């Protein structure tokens, strides 16, 4: 049996139950630096309980479509933001509580922040250097649950 | 009188008293995602006191060299990280306690995190879309002090 998932454009509405879309859509909240810089303020729900927030860098191998999804994971103790450090779209996979997956493609210059406890796929850059800043919980709990699918999903446009 | 400042390459050692350099130099701290991703773990001292950490996006006009430095600012209540969302180097200006400025140019794929209270210039992209993720304190204090130089500095290679 083959299970296929189609990739949808990433929108704030479609992604709302999984996390935040970080982009510069709309007007800036504040103009700073003598009119030369727009601040799109406080766009993510950073939630790490009473632990620390850290900034890490992830450098990932590029993936190819169709992408075979075998695994999703979640972080019960904190949110996790992926900020691309190049202007390349990347694939974002999330899953519902019943583990049904959904796939989105970002626009250039967009990041995402998974809400605490959201099932998601691993980082899947499709182009570029595969370099991301990751803002997540720094703590001493495992903060990781994994689910392996018995039958993989194939993700493509 | 003309005051000139030469731009130096950004290195961890040269920048240590001002903040953290966020890059993938050296080996990753951890290999994740079945060997396909390196995690360069917890590279910044995120320090916002007892306030929240937020993720904002800054979209800045490009600046040109020589760059005229009239102003530095500092955030007494929190650190501030600039993560470029394109692979373009940008100019980083900091100043000592006596307000003597120093200028650095990043390498592609590098961000920085100003330590709490470090005097620094405003965001100065020299190329690219001028798009940055900013990780800093979300709070209800002004958290901003500015210093205007009587005589501007001119920054160039």
From TrEMBL, chains A, B:
GO biological process: allantoin catabolic process; purine nucleobase metabolic process
Subunit structure: Homodimer.
Reaction equations catalysed: (S)-ureidoglycolate = urea + glyoxylate
CDD domains referenced in this protein's UniProt entry, alphabetically: cupin_UAH
Key word Cell membrane present: no
Keyword vocabulary terms for this entry: Lyase, Purine metabolism
Gene Ontology MF annotations: ureidoglycolate hydrolase activity; ureidoglycolate lyase activity
Pfam family, one: Ureidogly_lyase
Native organism: Yoonia maritima
Protein name: Ureidoglycolate lyase
């Amino acid at each position: 049996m083959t299970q296929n998932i189609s990739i949808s454009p990433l929108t704030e509405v479609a992604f709302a139950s999984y996390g935040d879309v970080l982009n510069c859509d709309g007007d800036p909240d504040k103009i700073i630096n003598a009119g030369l810089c727009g601040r799109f303020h406080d766009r993510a729900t950073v939630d790490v309980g009473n632990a620390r927030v850290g900034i890490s860098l992830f450098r990932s191998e590029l993936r190819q479509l169709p992408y075979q999804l075998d695994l999703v994971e979640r972080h019960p103790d904190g949110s996790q933001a992926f900020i691309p450090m190049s202007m390349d779209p990347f694939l974002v996979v999330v899953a519902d509580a019943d583990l049904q997956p959904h796939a989105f493609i970002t626009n250039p210059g967009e990041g995402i922040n998974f809400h605490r406890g959201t099932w998601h796929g691993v980082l899947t850059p499709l182009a570029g250097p595969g370099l991301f800043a990751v803002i997540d919980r720094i703590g001493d709990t495992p903060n990781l649950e994994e689910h392996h699918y018995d039958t993989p999903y194939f993700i493509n446009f």
